[in-house]
Amino acid sequence: MSTRALLEVIALDAEDAVAAQAGGADRLELVTEMAADGLTPPTATVAAIRAAVDIPLRVMVRLADGFAAGDVERLVGVAEEMREAGATEFVLGFLDADGGVDLDAVERVVGALDGCRWTFHRAIDRAADRDALRKQLDGLPGLDTYLTAGADTGVDDGLPTLLAEAARHGEQGYAPRILVGGGLRLDHVPELLAAGIDAFHIGGAARPDGWTGPVSAGAVREWREALDQS
After folding, report:
1. CATH code: domain of residue 143
2. Which residues does UniProt call coiled coil (predicted)?
3. What's the rounded Cα separation, in Å, for the pair 18 and 25?
């Protein structure tokens, strides 16, 4: 059985997706509007990316900046549209005004996913109580990953939290995989791997020219090689 670490790369379009796969990405997160930290992409974009690559895709379900669910009926409709467009994996996460998980919104969207696998994204890094959030979401169908930096300010500040949560793997709320992203650098990788964390998420790090430029296969390959050699 392979012990290869998972490398997930943000893709905005088919060009990004092809470059990410060529560089060695294992999975893509599909979004649009990075100025709003990533919103749901158009169905046509999802279809084009699905046709361009053969690695797994996780599609963002988020309609506005921030972590409030907003119009839950629209979110449910978007999730259903994405499934009809061929999406089988997703990314989502909603908080209430007090920083707690918006369980009603999450459950309704997850119901529309009908068992598809999904990631609870970096809303966990803005939660008032990370442990409570994990326990409230424990057992929801399809939840297999938390995308987190350990802190809303990024991995530099969140590293102790990431290491502590990795040590709790298997406890109630801690079975999903930790996917580290948000200010992640290559120099963080050895300590995270040593703690048993084996999934990494990059966005800007895959784009030498910033978010106005495309994903670079070479930049992705640098991460792939670093993960494989660590």
Report:
1. 3.20.20.380
2. none
3. 10
